[in-house]
Structure formats: structure tokens, C-alpha cells
Amino acid sequence: MYERKIPLNLNCGLDLVGEVLYGKWKIRLLWFIEQGHKRPSELQRKIPDASRRVLTIQLKELEDHELISKVIYAVVPPKVEYSLTDFGKTLIPVIAAIGNWGDSYEQRLREVILKRQGGEAVPD
Question: By its UniProt entry, which PROSITE patterns does this protein fall under (predicted)?
């Protein structure tokens, strides 16, 4: 069984949000589910850099945190669909605001990210 190496620190709202949303693909998964991409294969196509295993793990964590729900249809082959819970829907304006901030500072963010990695920004 998995045992955490670093104990949970849930002293403030940022700690709580970090615990729930920590994971490279979770914010994108929530956004794409809200946009209507409900099946695991659709989500995999929207995030091709993520492995199926990692997406499955992160979807399970989002489900455990009650941000999404999973419906398994009794057909052959089994069909699975995800949807946002009412609780998960409350995150969409926050995610949209973060995305808008990223769009507003896109060039600057690209430059600082690439500078840190030792690369150069590619002009648009």
C-alpha cells in the first residue's frame, strides 16, 4: 500500500487546492471534461503527451476528490464517461481566469520558461 513520504500539510486554502489539483494534467482534464470531452479516449486525444496510465490515475484522484463523477455503462465493450460534479463546476471560473492570465502574459512566460531551460523563444 502507498505511504506518503511527505506528510499532508492542510493549513490553508492554497495547501488544500494544491493537494486536490496537484498533477500535471488535472487542470486540463477538468477543462476538457467541462468542454464536453467525456470519454477516456477523447481525453487521451486532447492530451497526447500524457500516458493513458497517468491520465487514469489523475482521473481517479479527481473522482476521489469529488470533482468529477464516472459512469460505467453496461455494454460490451464497457463504455465509461466522466462529468463534472457541481463541486467540480465551481473550479471552472478559476481555471478560466488562470488560462486568461496565461494568454495575457504568453510571450513573457514563454521567454522566462525557455530562458530557464537554456533555449530561445521562437517568434510567432
Answer: HTH_HXLR
Q: Which residue has the cell 470531452?
A: 37
CATH topology of domain 13-84: Arc Repressor Mutant, subunit A (1.10.10)
Could you tell me the CA-to-CA distances from 19 to 10, 15, 66, 79 in Å, in that order? 8, 6, 13, 29
Residue type, 71: V
Contact 26, 76 (CB under 8 A): no
**What's the rounded Cα separation, in Å, for the pair 91 and 108?**
26
Q: What is the DSSP letter of 121?
A: P
CA 70 from chain centre, in angstroms, equals 16
Could you report the average pLDDT of every consecutive run of 10 residues in the chain (124 residues)?
A: 75 90 95 95 95 96 97 92 97 96 96 83 54
Range(s) of the chain covered by CATH 1.10.10.10: 13-84
Q: What is the pLDDT of residue 116?
A: 85
